[in-house]
Amino acid sequence: TLSDRLTSVLKNLRGKGKLSDADIDATCREIRIALLEADVALPVVRSFIAQIKERAKGAEVSQALNPAQQVVKIVNEELVAILGGETRRLNLAKTPPTVIMLAGLQGAGKTTLAGKLAKHLAGQNHTPLLVACDLQRPNAVNQLQVVGQRAGVPVFAPEPGNGVGDPVAVARLAIEEARKSQHDLVIVDTAGRLGVDEELMKQAADIRDAVQPDEVLFVVDAMIGQDAVSTATAFQEGVGFTGVVLTKLDGDARGGAALSVREVTGQPIMYASNGEKLEDFDVFHPDRMASRILGMGDVLTLIEQAEQVFDAQEAEKQAQKLGAGELTLEDFLQQMMAVRKMGPIANLLGMLPGAGQMKDAIAQVDEKQLDRVQAIIRGMTPAERADPKIINASRRQRIAKGSGVAISEINNLVNRFFDAKKMMQQMAGRFGIGGGSATRG
Ligand code: GDP
Ligand code: MG
């Protein structure tokens, strides 16, 4: 994954001033591979990376993030922006019914989606009517009827006198029916073909002309990868659409199709389908898709949290103190609180790449123990925190009483603190950190 490959780049120290061109190039190279692996179309990758480089070159170096993390953050922000930023709401007709037409290849998931969308909108106080305009496949009408029944939404289907054999007539009659029966919303399911062909486009365009839809949703299987671009282009030219629905996101597709379709057609992705069941449906979340495409999972969350909490200047001071052997219990308390502000330690560890292998260790993190350590330090006076050497027997007794722990726990903490301090001094000596002349990058 990208996070694995970025590990070497991520080893860089925090920079100064501007991000270096080398940092940006190295990180962009990895991002480019990640995008291609996610099935983003090559021309889209190219223009996207060019844009990222532009922006990264002008960016101030963050105090909280290293250069690679910072580029990843920029990439993520741009990705979210391109994927649509805020989710667009459905275009409703001024005079009901609002007509939503579904278009896409056979097997894309139109009929399944019709039911999901109907249920979703019914839950928002709409009164949808499903319309069966796929008269191509023998079982298609029945399939929609089953879906409608599950969703609790009525289905308008062809029957004698109801435009049998002619999807355009069915569509027209359905709109009349919706007006009569006060449905404020009509969802028109249409036929697809296995590939793009002229007959399919003509039929879809005829239905479109007959019902004058407020939205045409292009339904596309996220698993078709690179083909999404040519299919989307064909549908845009042949029928035109106002929004995109991605289906089969429960599969292992990384979702680069989303980025490509969005970029190439300029139309927003509005809904996501992630399973065969009616409930497997969501409005589209650009941020979730961005992290899926990047394959960074929760690393992005971690970057965000690190930025919120991490005060680089403070850390710098700490590193100096640490090297000089001046670390105090007060510093320790502050750092511990800063880390814990990000959430339970086990969760934080769980977000790191490779957390799977550390499952057992993570499960053993005892938050209660950490609470007690904090309580002990809080029970100390500033002088004691600054110089734990002065904590004699009577002071230990007072702290134990004040923080509600046994004296042995205080002994433990103080001893471990001295051990850690000694070890850090040794390490600092070996790596030449601290003592006024810090070495960097
Ligand atoms: P249509 O030809 O475009 O109407 O596609 P269908 O709605 O009939 O779906 C084709 C197949 O894909 C069916 O077997 C559906 O159960 C399945 N399907 C549809 N949407 C999803 C989805 O989001 N995830 C998964 N795993 N399967 C889906
Ligand atoms: Mg269908």
Automatic annotation (TrEMBL):
<dbReference type="GO" id="GO:0006614">
    <property type="term" value="P:SRP-dependent cotranslational protein targeting to membrane"/>
</dbReference>
<dbReference type="GO" id="GO:0003924">
    <property type="term" value="F:GTPase activity"/>
</dbReference>
<dbReference type="InterPro" id="IPR022941">
    <property type="entry name" value="SRP54"/>
</dbReference>
<dbReference type="GO" id="GO:0048500">
    <property type="term" value="C:signal recognition particle"/>
</dbReference>
<keyword id="KW-0687">Ribonucleoprotein</keyword>
<dbReference type="InterPro" id="IPR027417">
    <property type="entry name" value="P-loop_NTPase"/>
</dbReference>
<dbReference type="InterPro" id="IPR042101">
    <property type="entry name" value="SRP54_N_sf"/>
</dbReference>
<protein>
    <recommendedName>
        <fullName>Signal recognition particle protein</fullName>
        <ecNumber>3.6.5.4</ecNumber>
    </recommendedName>
</protein>
<dbReference type="InterPro" id="IPR004780">
    <property type="entry name" value="SRP"/>
</dbReference>
<keyword id="KW-0963">Cytoplasm</keyword>
<dbReference type="InterPro" id="IPR003593">
    <property type="entry name" value="AAA+_ATPase"/>
</dbReference>
<dbReference type="InterPro" id="IPR004125">
    <property type="entry name" value="Signal_recog_particle_SRP54_M"/>
</dbReference>
<feature type="binding site">
    <location>
        <begin position="189"/>
        <end position="193"/>
    </location>
    <ligand>
        <name>GTP</name>
    </ligand>
</feature>
<dbReference type="Pfam" id="PF02978">
    <property type="entry name" value="SRP_SPB"/>
</dbReference>
<dbReference type="Pfam" id="PF02881">
    <property type="entry name" value="SRP54_N"/>
</dbReference>
<feature type="binding site">
    <location>
        <begin position="104"/>
        <end position="111"/>
    </location>
    <ligand>
        <name>GTP</name>
    </ligand>
</feature>
<keyword id="KW-0342">GTP-binding</keyword>
<dbReference type="GO" id="GO:0005525">
    <property type="term" value="F:GTP binding"/>
</dbReference>
<keyword id="KW-0547">Nucleotide-binding</keyword>
<feature type="compositionally biased region" description="Gly residues">
    <location>
        <begin position="431"/>
        <end position="441"/>
    </location>
</feature>
<feature type="domain" description="SRP54-type proteins GTP-binding">
    <location>
        <begin position="268"/>
        <end position="281"/>
    </location>
</feature>
<dbReference type="InterPro" id="IPR013822">
    <property type="entry name" value="Signal_recog_particl_SRP54_hlx"/>
</dbReference>
<keyword id="KW-0378">Hydrolase</keyword>
<comment type="subunit">
    <text>Part of the signal recognition particle protein translocation system, which is composed of SRP and FtsY.</text>
</comment>
<comment type="function">
    <text>Involved in targeting and insertion of nascent membrane proteins into the cytoplasmic membrane. Binds to the hydrophobic signal sequence of the ribosome-nascent chain (RNC) as it emerges from the ribosomes. The SRP-RNC complex is then targeted to the cytoplasmic membrane where it interacts with the SRP receptor FtsY.</text>
</comment>
<dbReference type="InterPro" id="IPR000897">
    <property type="entry name" value="SRP54_GTPase_dom"/>
</dbReference>
<comment type="similarity">
    <text>Belongs to the GTP-binding SRP family. SRP54 subfamily.</text>
</comment>
<dbReference type="GO" id="GO:0008312">
    <property type="term" value="F:7S RNA binding"/>
</dbReference>
<keyword id="KW-0733">Signal recognition particle</keyword>
<dbReference type="InterPro" id="IPR036891">
    <property type="entry name" value="Signal_recog_part_SRP54_M_sf"/>
</dbReference>
<keyword id="KW-0694">RNA-binding</keyword>
<dbReference type="Pfam" id="PF00448">
    <property type="entry name" value="SRP54"/>
</dbReference>
<feature type="binding site">
    <location>
        <begin position="247"/>
        <end position="250"/>
    </location>
    <ligand>
        <name>GTP</name>
    </ligand>
</feature>
